[in-house]
User: Fold this.
Amino acid sequence: MRILITGAGGAAAISVWKSLGAEHEIHMADMDPLAAGLYLVPVDRRLLIPRGDDPTLIPILREACKTRRIEALLPTVDAELAPLAAVREQFESIGVQLPISPVECLRICRDKLLLLEKVKGIVPIPDNQPLTQAAADRADSFPLLVKPRSGAGSRGVAKIASREDLEGVPKDGSFLLQEFLPGEEYSVDVYVRRDGRVVGAVPRERMKVDSGIAVASRTINLPEVIESAVKTAEAIGIRGTANVQFKRAADGVFKLLEVNPRFPGTLPLTGAAGIDMPKLMADELAGKSLPDGLMPFKELMVVRYWTEHYFDAREWEALCRRQ
Assistant:
């Protein structure tokens, strides 16, 4: 199968390449000619593309898929997901499958307030409310947490130790004021079949983080976290792979943080533990049957380190000339 993966400079794209590169024809795309993943595939399988919010992205990707006879397009950049899901039919009409969640699911995941409202009563969630001046004035129990309603990652997230810490934070409802969860955090990699059945759910503990990247992790069998991840994925309509994050509250209950509806960067650990989610995706795209129930996995630990890939500098020069 010919698969085009975007976000070639990110750990998610490279993780998928590690899983599928030996059996499938992988093409890599990125806006940065220095993206590492571009140089892991042959010269004719590299593609420079614009930013995820650039209006020319869709036509460029569609033309590239036609020219290269791509069979599946896999975006790994948050900003690309919703624009591509909105025009899914344009790609399917030329024989290109898009193994990502539907537009409505992506909209819910992007807005953390909508997400928490959607799963309230289904899984445990932290106490939360939109941050307004009135909400700030009422705050009398600390610490609390503020985070942007929209966006991904930890940008804009801050621990609030007193009401004075809320000064300078927008109070127009674009931020959430939320219960502070002091316990350990688990990220659950899930795979959901096209019919909505969850067949994989693997909790990972981020044991050490360096510059936002987990460099030491372990898989661990936590039934209550697995159950909540499955219920969350089902409630919001996830399809394919997603990452569902939980953190333990002061009362010991694991509560939902957010959902990233795409491949995470720590996939090799999940695969080594027994559930290779990129391979599940490729098998499903090829029409193969997937398991009916949750697949077993083993508890395993990983430490990650840098490695090097050497190539002729003229390859980079040639790629830059294509811009």
Q: What stands out?
A: Residues 2-100 form a domain with the Rossmann fold fold (CATH 3.40.50.20).
